[in-house]
Amino acid sequence: MSSEQFDLLVEVKCAPISTSISLSERDLAGIRVDLNSSDIGALAVLNDHSSYHCSMVFIEIQDIPQSMIGTTAKSELPPSSDDATLAYISSRWEDWILRSGAIENVFEDEHSRISENIEHYLRIKYAGSSLPPVESTKTRGMDVQRRLKRLRSEGGTLHEKPKKEGFLHQYILYHIISTDGALGCTRHRNNPVGVPDIEARINRLD
Asked: How many CB atoms lie within 10 A of CB 91?
């Protein structure tokens, strides 16, 4: 693990159950970084259209063409980043989806309470420690998609709540980025109504 820190700017584009995302010039402006620096600006996109690779993928600003402004099919997105730090954040997001009972305990229609619910859940269930990782398997991507389908099905916690689900994923990402020990965050801000959605200064992982 490296002790080098960098600024991370994230715009979250979940569009749960939708086959496309919408992107504006304002969204892109919020994640622009100096490409000569070590900082990263990225879109976080819920890649839930894929049966085999369902995850939260990150697309870095330099890989986003201007032609993406407007509506873009999730199946036609640019390649996702292979940055180790972003891959770690994505994996930890998957842990939250896969951990039985986690989403059910932290989701709330009033999204401003989700961060408080996350802290309460971890305090009660894990004595305030981080969520334990879920063992990685060859079918992890498919497992994530199946879990999301169950949560969205009739009677599920996220049934017919795509917009509120979007806020849930943003708050989970923010929690991971701002509190995970490996990332060693020293500055952070969550911005549910502005751009970018998440700003933080964190460790670069190898």
From this structure: 16
